[in-house]
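Internal ticket - ligand job 386, protoporphyrin IX containing FE:
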Amino acid sequence: MSETPYRPFAHVPLAVFRQMRQQDPVHFDPRMHGWAVFRYDDAQYVLSHPQLFSSEAILPGQPHLPSFLGMDDPRHRKLRNIVSQVFTPRMIEQLTPQITAVVHQLLDQVAPQGHMDVIRDFAYPLPITIIAGLLGVPAEDQDTFRSWSDSLTAANGTNDTPEARATNAQSFQDYFLQKLSERRRQPQQDLMSRLINAEVDGEKLSDEELLEFCRLLLIAGYETTANLLGNAFVCFDQYPEVAEKLRQHPEFMPGAVEEILRCFPSVAGDTRVALEDTTLGGKQIQKHQVVSVVATSANYDESQFPDPERFDIHRDPNRHLTFGYGVHFCLGAPLARLEARIGLTIALRRLQNIQRDPGQPIEPVQSPFIIGVRNFPITFTATAHE
Ligand code: HEM
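stdout (structure tokens):
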């Protein structure tokens, strides 16, 4: 059978972005009543001046999140500081055995059949199982937890009615309030117990704030990581020589993950609102106007990334903006990186001769905020699990 020509991210308008960086890098878009920022330097400027460009109440297409992702300092700094005491790179590093075990379990399930849908069988289950573990959800509750999470984040193609979503949100809330009160009575060695006790300047998180953080972990950490994993398989399909090189040299995996994040950012940008009249790239921005940083364009800015359209796992430095920049820089970046490094290294080792199933059309994720695919069927030869 002849292979159908296939460009999974053809809808990402790299040529348009290139033109915008040259001709109109800070562009007023009347459809969104705001500005789109295409160049790296301008993007970095917006994200590093939160006193001019606010994060509060402006997650487009999403209900307002009272979590600190949608807050400005000083409240943001205080909550982030409390959580950062617990959610440390060291704590994340200690998840290595759990992540490794989950990756093997997922691959054990598909290995005998010699085919899988990367998105359904690997990319979504891995991050949600790790988040469930972090939140102390026991094995018997994990399927329920996952169905609430899919509903809450509208992830995985879930298309619940608003009523079903409200019911699931309520169940999620009741479940975690119950867990919180159990942990208050009987602290354990887990993230939630440590969050309950963490404090800055004598202030601890309230139940409502703790619940918000549980929700934030889901909303910020689930679909984003799932799409990173899915996009990695798309890259391996597009650049089979890269997959082969990584099989021979797993030590190059961290660089490969960064390049996948740069070229196919699962989070396509960040949004702010101007707090006062200001100028950016010679344009007059008015107070209350929306300013959207287009990370996908900034990540291809030729002034920062030489030969930006070349996929190069050895690119160094590789200061992409996919995890944001500045005070809101992704708190979960070490976790996303660790899951991707471990998951992809083991997958490449255990699955040989990976071939995309050419008979099944690949559907891109239909969202301006996420770059990814909704399905990615592959066949492979499984090696024995040592
Ligand atoms: C913030 C991207 C995975 C937790 C952010 C921001 C970006 C981002 C761009 C900043 C948004 C802004 O400035 O408005 C990503 C990507 C991920 C990923 C691309 C995966 C590839 C995770 C994971 C977690 C997480 C796994 C935790 C389980 C957070 C939190 C914030 C955040 C808590 C808020 C930080 C703050 O407001 O101070 N993420 N994220 N993220 N992310 Fe991630």
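Auto-summary: The mean pLDDT is 91. Residues 266 and 371 are 5 Å apart (CA to CA).
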